[in-house]
Design goal:
Layout lengths: L5 E5 L10 E5 L1 E10 L8 E2 L23 E9 L4 E10 L7 E4 L8 E7 L21 E9 L2 E2 L3 E6 L3 E8 L8 H10 L8 E7 L14 H10 L5 E10 L5 E2 L9 E8 L9 H11 L50 E3 L7 E4 L9 E6 L8 E8 L24 E20 L9 H9 L3 E5 L4 E3 L2 H12 L4 H5 L20 H12 L6 H4 L12 H19 L10 E6 L17 E4 L8 E6 L13 H12 L42 H8 L17
Parallel strand pairs: 3-10, 13-21, 21-22, 21-23, 21-24, 24-26
Antiparallel strand pairs: 1-2, 3-5, 4-11, 5-8, 6-7, 6-9, 9-11, 12-14, 14-15, 14-19, 16-18, 16-20, 17-18, 20-21, 25-26
């Protein structure tokens, strides 16, 4: 049987009163226990029934560990020296096993008021690898238990406190974490993340052009865009986490983050197709609805089966990252934070923060939007508090609705665009008709493709340089082509047209001189197999001069692979050649022709239509330029008008209802790119599309 120590108390006897001796048992206990700050905020003390809790304080008390001093204030009764030990234990709110314990010293067990300074530091352990209480396990229950012999009057008390994230701030991450130069360049072009309500263009430089006419009818464009940009660019998005101190102020306390997780999610921004002409709009609406009822998250970004990412897991948008331990200087080309996919919410991912080092207080992901132009994304991050069986919210769920969150940050909208460069605009002579670049750019902006003039405007070609280039190109022609050009003619001074040829009579004379023949031998010399281009009569000769002129111009302005500036070289003349209005001659508004160097990063577009060519129809010089650029971007002719189907037109390569397609020759109306052309320019796999727009939705 345990003994209860007693203490004798002699009471003072007042006059006229009676003497009373009282015996009270010795006891020990906790009468108050809480955390408090110098500013006056404190937590609430809890004691088990039937012992009343002292007034004051609140269960929502919070502070910023390590950067904010607090005091553990407690009051003990200890009248007989019976308490021989005391233990502080730290629990999560619903955990039975303590995360941390600490024994009180003998001095800390004495009766009366005690104040122990504390800034949240604890012994390093599995739960607290940085030796400080963290957001990861918050909220906390801090408990004081006394043990001893005799009468224990409330030997236990506890209090609650929180370590809270006050907010998250998103920022464009350090470009040093990116492995590819192209992604570093892209990050530099972005400059910063779009804020909510803003939109940023993610421009993918796409100077990729056809090198053969057959490539307009296959999926070469899709394959090369995929080869250039793979699964999409890597954009580093960092989130800086701020903690809340006891006064509600935002403070930087990175070590207090611990291993708390952050949930990264993305949302699809719906595309506005109202700016398109009715036929193109109908085609786009059907294609954008592709698999919308089956894929998650919902939206109209390009589906995975046409080259997009809608319907793919999180590793496609937030690629898994191993990360590495915090250090003072980040590793070049290595992403620092650990990122893992969510198990059920397959398009989302979790990340962890650095609690020290160069990125202390930050976490992040590599955001990898699709390479498909027109896709639009909004990225969100939230603190991954996840309640379990006690009722509440599960974060890793398959439902793609936005999740509730007390702490969340969101970007504005990232919209993917392709960017193609005009390397130079060169005209032969100041008298050549000028043009406005804006209407040309507008044609391609409908496909989320930016035509950017990198040449700084129009430049006039140097006369000597022009003549030198033409002379060199002529020497590369077959002999009959060379015979058509008089080497003594100053090609630059001859006029604003591109090339000046001999007349047919002069040509025949030159052939007889070269071949030392008479008139009787000419028919044989000017027919197959003696020549590549038969020219049996004057009309045939005038037609042949058109083809020779195209060949000469392209050869003259080609560069050796790797030497020229990537992009489109736009050449301007007033007329292609001097004989185009002669019998059999052909008037040409413009043309695109494959470069002899087969350099896929460069191409030439030639505009040579005179102002009178556009006087009697709805065609314009700007539409001609856009049409020819379309060819270099792999678009074939459209089969319109039906009665005058252009050479090489294939109906299945265009929207069957898009009779006003820019790639056709119907000059009775304003021409714009049809829906199928728009999607092809955006990077969609045309092999998966049908010219009948109603067959593209596949719900």
């Amino acid at each position: 049987m345990s003994r209860i120590a007693l203490t004798a108390t002699v009471a003072f006897t007042p006059p006229g009163g009676r003497n009373r001796n009282r015996l009270r048992p010795a006891h020990f206990g906790v009468t108050d226990f809480r955390l408090a700050t110098p500013g006056g905020a404190s937590s609430r003390c809890h004691r088990p029934a039937p012992f009343p809790a002292p007034e004051g304080g609140e269960d929502g008390f919070h502070f910023a560990p390590e950067v904010e001093p607090v005091e553990l204030r407690y009051q003990l009764t200890h009248t007989g020296g019976l308490a021989h030990s005391g233990t502080l234990e730290l629990f999560t709110r619903h955990q039975k096993k303590p995360l941390w314990t600490r024994a009180l010293s003998g001095e800390e067990l004495t009766a009366g008021d005690h104040r122990l300074p504390w800034d949240g530091r604890v012994a390093v352990c599995e739960a607290f690898p940085d030796g400080v209480v963290t957001v990861e396990h918050s909220p906390y229950k801090l408990k004081l238990t006394l043990q001893g012999s005799g009468w224990a009057e409330c030997p236990v008390a506890w209090t609650y406190f929180h370590v809270l994230v006050d907010g998250l701030e998103l920022e464009l991450g350090d470009p040093r974490v990116l492995a590819k130069a192209r992604d570093r360049d892209l990050a530099a072009s972005l400059g910063r993340l779009p804020a909510p309500g803003q939109k940023a263009e993610v421009r993918l430089v796409s100077n990729v052009f056809k090198t053969d006419t057959h490539e307009m009818n296959d999926d070469t464009d899709f394959r090369h865009h995929r080869a250039a940009w793979g699964n999409g660019p890597d954009i580093p998005i960092f989130a800086r986490a701020w903690l809340k101190d006891s006064q509600g102020r935002r403070v930087d306390a990175p070590r207090a983050l611990g291993r708390v997780r952050f949930l990264w999610d993305w949302e699809d921004e719906a595309e506005d197709v109202s700016r398109h002409a009715p036929r193109a709009r109908a085609f786009l609406e059907q294609a954008l609805n592709r698999q919308c009822s089956a894929s998650r998250p919902r939206g109209d970004n390009a589906h995975k089966d046409v080259g997009g990412k809608r319907g793919l897991p999180s590793s496609a948008v937030f690629p898994k990252q191993r990360g590495y331990a915090p250090q003072s200087r980040p590793r070049e080309g290595v992403f620092p934070f650990r990122v893992v996919p969510c198990r059920k919410r397959g398009w989302a991912a979790y990340s962890e923060a650095w609690t020290s080092g160069a990125f202390a207080g930050r976490t992040g992901v590599l955001f990898q939007p699709s390479r498909i132009a027109g896709d639009a994304w909004r990225v969100t991050v939230q603190l991954a508090y996840e309640r379990r069986k006690d009722g509440g919210v599960a974060l890793d769920v398959e439902d793609d609705a936005p999740l509730p969150a007390a702490v969340r940050a969101s970007t504005g909208v990232f919209e993917t665009w392709r960017e193609v460069h005009i390397s130079r605009v060169v005209r032969k002579h100041p008298s050549v008709s000028g043009f406005s670049l804006a209407p040309v750019q507008e044609q391609f902006e409908r496909a989320f493709l930016r035509l950017v003039d990198r040449g700084g405007g129009v430049t006039d070609v140097d006369a000597a340089d022009y003549n030198r280039r033409i002379a060199a190109a002529v020497k590369r022609l077959p002999w009959e082509g060379q015979a058509a050009i008089d080497p003594t003619v100053d090609q630059y001074a001859a006029g604003a047209h591109a090339l000046t040829f001999r007349t047919y009579a002069e040509f025949r004379t030159e052939v007889k001189r070269l071949k030392r023949c008479d008139d009787a031998a000419l028919p044989r010399l000017l027919s197959k197999p003696e020549v590549d281009t038969p020219v049996p009569d004057e009309s045939a000769y005038h037609r042949a001069c058109k083809d020779w002129a195209k060949d000469i111009i392209v050869k003259a302005f080609d560069e050796a692979p790797g030497r020229g500036t990537p992009g489109i070289l736009l050449l301007q003349f007033s007329g292609l050649y001097n004989l185009e209005r002669a019998p059999g001659g052909v008037t040409v508004n413009g043309f695109s022709k494959d470069l002899p160097s087969h350099d896929r990063t460069r191409c030439a577009v030639v505009q040579c239509g005179q102002a009178t060519n556009y006087a009697s129809n709805s065609n314009t010089l700007e539409q001609t330029i856009a049409h020819e650029i379309g060819h270099q971007l792999f678009l074939p002719h459209a089969p319109f008008p039906i009665h005058g189907k252009p050479t090489g037109a294939i109906a299945t390569q265009h929207d069957q209802d898009g009779t006003d397609c820019l790639m056709g020759y119907d000059y009775s109306m304003e021409r714009r790119l049809c829906g199928l052309c728009l999607l092809r320019l955006r990077g969609w796999n045309k092999q998966m599309l049908n010219s009948d727009g109603s067959r593209n939705a596949q719900p």
